[in-house]
């Protein structure tokens, strides 16, 4: 197998020096993925890759797949402009999404689309500039939902938000409101409206050939606040008339009721989407011919079917995916099913195969393959020559590091319920008498899956056993497992997390007195809240960007259009104070280490500040590290390395372990 890009690319975008990290492990694992996003040109000759630079920055790098030549054509500093993703509008024109947070009356996130030639020239802002008379803000700057109609090279279908204008003293003000769809030429920026604006319009699904076939409209009150219902309509192929498809309801606990459409197949004339089946999510198709014939495509009585496999510029649906112990994809397309099986044999140790992109004729496929102890590699497969070529590893800095294997496990909850999870043991370890970490996932409406996890792998490299439990309150296991989300049903969720720690001790995996808990976001909440149920179980707590007070979390949504939904998700009652670590400081005995970015819009930094202050006021052991200019994900190589290094030293001191270089 030949390598077509790797050497040139590593030279083109040098990895930043990590000044704050002391251990080599922190440097290696703290570095972000070397390929943050990648796409293939329509002719299959070049790739566009978003790569990390300068700590928190990112660059767009164009690589020629024949010669291996690379060129950096766009850079974002990460302060505040974050280059997120780039895609080919044509063989010569590229569209990129740029994200930023700005401080107005409060912190507000904005996204803008830019377009440029593949050599870096003719850079333009694709998002329309807001009117200076507008009575509101356009935060999104438009979303690309499809390429233009077949044959319209370099055009895109984009959402456009219409905002009513201030009318005092003028007759020229616009009263248009809501979201519509424009066809936009990415070179000339010429706009043509193809779908009129509608108040409450929130979702448009095209057929991959430039035709909008499904639309979702969310009911709004007079103040623009969102309801919990989206009404979906569809069109038959030969009509512009909208017909009723169905309603999707977001329940107070965060679950869904009703058909949630995801993709339209033009040739089959159906829409694919997910709906409930006997307490689990299943994939259905509904015909768009006027009859709304509904068919079950795939369901599973034990887990939720929750993903679509899609390919090519038309994003056609070729399969369905779901996670049991490992993520599985069942392909409808027999050619891709055969190819996936062949690749599994050609790439041992990399069973997680995903098709990322394709040339316009699908003769060349851009794909990713990885595993648990393999961070993964991007490849190009040529159907004509049947050759597979390596494009770039996801984390080349880990090439010579022996990574740990990840084992699916179950452990018993206090009520006897088997709780699934994943156990990562240090490479070469016998798995006994180790310092150990329970690491609950974020969300809470999420789950952990088998595969490479940079945070778990770092701690395993430092000698820790790591257990990642999919506690009740996680998604993926059906309605009954989800309970009423991890906040309203916090006692069940946190009890499961704690039972994971007890299991590590009973199995002899965790050495006596050497058990800690580490979490990010909701996982950080769970780490802190674990002491409310058992103050003595964990001897050290590390919480990254944690929720610490449910009423504070509710308040952070005040003034936004989704406040009512957030309010219902958190709920009201005794669980709000009982389920808030900030209100239960007295039950925390273990030393605490907190990390938070001061630009976090998911969980406000004030939550960690309040937690730190209250712990200090109560005479508890606490350290707090705040990172300036970063949001929830702490997308900065130096900061992540510093965080890993600091947390490792903190855990070793709290657990009485020897320092490790």
List the helices and strands and how they pair.
Elements: H1 6-12, H2 24-30, E1 37-40, E2 46-53, E3 57-64, E4 70-76, E5 82-88, E6 93-103, E7 107-117, E8 124-125, E9 144-147, E10 155-162, E11 178-185, E12 191-198, E13 201-206, E14 212-220, E15 226-234, E16 243-250, E17 256-257, E18 260-265, E19 270-277, E20 280-287, E21 294-298, E22 305-311, E23 316-323, E24 327-331, H3 334-346, E25 352-358, E26 364-370, E27 377-382, E28 387-393, E29 406-412, E30 418-424, E31 434-438, H4 454-461, E32 465-469, H5 479-482, H6 485-488, H7 490-506, E33 510-520, H8 522-533, E34 541-544, H9 550-556, H10 563-570, H11 574-578, E35 592-597, H12 605-617, E36 622-627, H13 637-655
Parallel strand pairs: 31-32, 31-33, 33-34, 34-35, 35-36
Antiparallel strand pairs: 1-2, 2-3, 3-4, 5-6, 6-7, 7-8, 9-10, 10-11, 11-12, 13-14, 14-15, 15-16, 16-17, 18-19, 19-20, 20-21, 22-23, 23-24, 25-26, 26-27, 27-28, 29-30, 30-32
